[in-house]
């Protein structure tokens, strides 16, 4: 009986000491924990016919408390947060909690999690889905001598969804600004779409490809008073009736045409087959720089008379005419 009395001797004090020891143990353990915070994208599970009237927060703050080696082994990609509105089928305002899901790699980690904010209020309105034509928003023009000949958008239209009262009358969606002021070559650009309103969603993604086809401008120009020149005429012969001038209409790239001078364009009459005096109808041939195309020229033929050349000293015809 004496031993039994010793066990229960000062029992209240012993119980207090035990509780204090347990609390001290957990306090020391808890104080050894680290805490970190990460921003996690917020997703929403929505009913088929409703959509938020205004955008939800893009991210929420998640606190992670635990041993240092555990909490810093977790990546933001191991966690996901969401709100579940799928059970609400009538337009209205709803306050719902934010849920946390851990990926497989985070399931074995001992840690405490907190979410800020822990809940949000969402207004659900009637949803409308429709296809909108994509319009590139172009600024500026290519440098002088160049022009945009074609612009392709891939895809040419996109599906969007949003509040009915916001997109019911919308038929087009524009891209971000595309600057063409320095474009001299073809380009394939990846650009984002500009949503008609923040509450409008683009389920298939907000990026499109814009192909810009740029060509050097083709210039047309007519040169008047181009001298006609007879070539390959025998020195013993001379020609009468050859017109002094003609005209040539040409086209070519801007860079070539810009530096072209009248003396670079010629009209020649080929006399290589003229061997004796007489009357001839000869073909006229234009001569122009490379990269230039002749569209028209005049005259195309000339009628001339050919005779033996008179000797400057004697005033008589050359030997062939004696």
TrEMBL record:
Gene3D superfamilies noted in UniProt: 2.170.120.30, YbbR-like domain
InterPro entries: c-di-AMP_regulator, YbbR
Superkingdom as given in the UniProt entry: Bacteria
Name the UniProt record assigns to this protein: YbbR family protein
Organism: Winmispira thermophila (strain ATCC 700085 / DSM 6578 / Z-1203) (Spirochaeta thermophila)
């Amino acid at each position: 009986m004496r031993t039994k009395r010793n066990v229960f001797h000062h029992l209240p004090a012993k119980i207090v000491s035990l509780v204090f020891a347990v609390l001290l143990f957990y306090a020391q353990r808890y104080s050894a924990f680290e805490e970190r915070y990460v921003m996690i994208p917020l997703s929403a599970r929505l009913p088929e016919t409703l959509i938020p009237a205004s955008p939800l927060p893009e991210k929420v703050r998640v606190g992670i408390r635990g041993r240092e080696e555990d909490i810093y082994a977790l990546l933001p990609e191991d966690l996901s947060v969401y709100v579940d509105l799928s059970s609400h089928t009538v337009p209205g305002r709803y306050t719902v909690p934010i849920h946390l899901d851990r990926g497989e790699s985070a399931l074995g980690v001992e840690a405490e999690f907190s979410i800020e904010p822990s809940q949000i209020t969402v207004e659900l309105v009637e949803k409308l889905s429709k296809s909108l034509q994509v319009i590139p928003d172009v600024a500026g023009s290519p440098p002088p001598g160049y022009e945009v000949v074609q612009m392709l958008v891939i895809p040419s239209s996109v599906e969007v969804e949003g509040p009915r009262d916001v997109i019911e009358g919308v038929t087009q969606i524009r891209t971000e600004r595309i600057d063409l002021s320095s474009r001299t070559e073809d380009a394939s650009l990846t650009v984002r779409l500009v949503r008609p309103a923040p509450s409008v969603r683009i389920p298939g993604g907000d990026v499109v490809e814009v192909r810009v086809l740029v060509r050097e401008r083709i210039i047309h120009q007519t040169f008047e008073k181009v001298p006609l020149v007879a070539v390959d005429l025998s020195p013993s012969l001379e020609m009468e009736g050859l017109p002094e001038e003609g005209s040539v209409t040409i086209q070519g790239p801007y860079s070539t045409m810009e530096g072209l001078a009248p003396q670079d364009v010629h009209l020649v009459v080929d006399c290589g087959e003229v061997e004796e005096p007489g009357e001839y109808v000869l073909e006229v041939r234009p001569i122009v720089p490379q990269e230039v195309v002749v569209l028209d020229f005049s005259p195309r033929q000339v009628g001339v008379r050919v005779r033996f050349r008179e000797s400057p000293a004697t005033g008589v015809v050359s030997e062939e005419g004696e």
